[in-house]
């Protein structure tokens, strides 16, 4: 029968436990001198060796021939505990036995002396899961335990354990195991198991395991089928992005190439990769880029083995640390939401849209525009261009034949300009309320990337039998205007409008001029608020 690596290689004595020497040394000293506590509390994150050490301790206190505080694992007591035939060592999972009755059973058993070994040992795993009543019942036992009993409580969430329990236990804090220690152990085990694990592969698993040896060994298990387990093989079998793909995705974000970023997410999705892992990897990459950018001295030992310092330097060129921090905020936000998102792909795509449009948005915010204005004033560049505007009444006329693809305001460019006052007084035409409905119904029948972009950055007007779709960026306009997306959208829009409509898509450069006028007015107004002297040309 196949045995999982983490079971097969679970340490049998304290000497084999890695990364927790501060604990194993103390326990061995206590065992050698016989100064043992009657209750221990092991706390720390998952996979750090709490249960393993509890089991070793249970054998060590009962071993007939202990060696330097370690159990011999050969005497009848050790063997009996290992194969489960000694009933005096009891393991209880508090996650499923958390009631008062479960603890009362323990209290009843505590009264009787052990039948085959020296000490009865109760290992209570996930002890924080006990109910309040169960904790109270346990407390009574911990207050006056018989000489022949030892309790070992283990928890990942120490803050949920009542102070009254804590004060009656000797507490040991298990640390996350360092990536180096995990990688070293993985190499040793791989050699014994005849797995061709490379150093880079071991380092990547170690980093991904986040200090948990058990997780690291489970990952090694999943990659063991590969001929050579290097970092690419690890990425592939664990369903995470390879380092090249992560770099490509970051490059797309850096250059605000939304289409490339969305395509990269699409590829990861179709390859069956975990998109929340992709977000995590982006975060890791940005952390490494920040480290390379801001740290003095050699940090190559602190960055992920998946990248070289050269790659990170090149990728970080032209990106300010503040920008990278802003990127990481967006990614952290996505990481928090993506696990519970009903559609992870959409969530990941939205995240890419936010990343790619971040630079533009920062500039687009009013303060950004005022800053730009100040910059222009300093350099003596005219801030307001003469705007050619059309009278409001002319806008509603049908477009001239032969030029149907141009939006109405562009078709009227040749006409004499009306005075500025009437143009700026013209209200923006109302959004067509049917548009959100169209997008909702389009879900599943048009490209997901196009739909996401449209949901984020488009609005529409219904005008004279045409639906005019205004997109805030060229990518959205390009996606929406492509066949068959535009045909599908036209059909749905016709159904929603109740009559046949034609759909027209406009990018940001095709904004109506009345719109530009409104923006410059807004800037002028804001400039006055900030006491900036503006000269109109
Ligand atoms: Zn023994």
From TrEMBL:
<keyword id="KW-0808">Transferase</keyword>
<keyword id="KW-0067">ATP-binding</keyword>
<keyword id="KW-0235">DNA replication</keyword>
<dbReference type="InterPro" id="IPR008921">
    <property type="entry name" value="DNA_pol3_clamp-load_cplx_C"/>
</dbReference>
<keyword id="KW-0862">Zinc</keyword>
<dbReference type="InterPro" id="IPR003593">
    <property type="entry name" value="AAA+_ATPase"/>
</dbReference>
<dbReference type="InterPro" id="IPR022754">
    <property type="entry name" value="DNA_pol_III_gamma-3"/>
</dbReference>
<dbReference type="InterPro" id="IPR001270">
    <property type="entry name" value="ClpA/B"/>
</dbReference>
<feature type="region of interest" description="Disordered">
    <location>
        <begin position="391"/>
        <end position="430"/>
    </location>
</feature>
<dbReference type="GO" id="GO:0003887">
    <property type="term" value="F:DNA-directed DNA polymerase activity"/>
</dbReference>
<dbReference type="InterPro" id="IPR045085">
    <property type="entry name" value="HLD_clamp_pol_III_gamma_tau"/>
</dbReference>
<dbReference type="GO" id="GO:0003677">
    <property type="term" value="F:DNA binding"/>
</dbReference>
<comment type="similarity">
    <text>Belongs to the DnaX/STICHEL family.</text>
</comment>
<keyword id="KW-0548">Nucleotidyltransferase</keyword>
<dbReference type="GO" id="GO:0046872">
    <property type="term" value="F:metal ion binding"/>
</dbReference>
<dbReference type="Pfam" id="PF12169">
    <property type="entry name" value="DNA_pol3_gamma3"/>
</dbReference>
<dbReference type="GO" id="GO:0005524">
    <property type="term" value="F:ATP binding"/>
</dbReference>
<dbReference type="Pfam" id="PF22608">
    <property type="entry name" value="DNAX_ATPase_lid"/>
</dbReference>
<feature type="domain" description="AAA+ ATPase">
    <location>
        <begin position="36"/>
        <end position="178"/>
    </location>
</feature>
<dbReference type="Pfam" id="PF13177">
    <property type="entry name" value="DNA_pol3_delta2"/>
</dbReference>
<dbReference type="GO" id="GO:0006261">
    <property type="term" value="P:DNA-templated DNA replication"/>
</dbReference>
<keyword id="KW-0547">Nucleotide-binding</keyword>
<protein>
    <recommendedName>
        <fullName>DNA-directed DNA polymerase</fullName>
        <ecNumber>2.7.7.7</ecNumber>
    </recommendedName>
</protein>
<dbReference type="InterPro" id="IPR012763">
    <property type="entry name" value="DNA_pol_III_sug/sutau_N"/>
</dbReference>
<dbReference type="InterPro" id="IPR027417">
    <property type="entry name" value="P-loop_NTPase"/>
</dbReference>
<keyword id="KW-0479">Metal-binding</keyword>
<dbReference type="InterPro" id="IPR050238">
    <property type="entry name" value="DNA_Rep/Repair_Clamp_Loader"/>
</dbReference>
<dbReference type="GO" id="GO:0009360">
    <property type="term" value="C:DNA polymerase III complex"/>
</dbReference>
<keyword id="KW-0239">DNA-directed DNA polymerase</keyword>
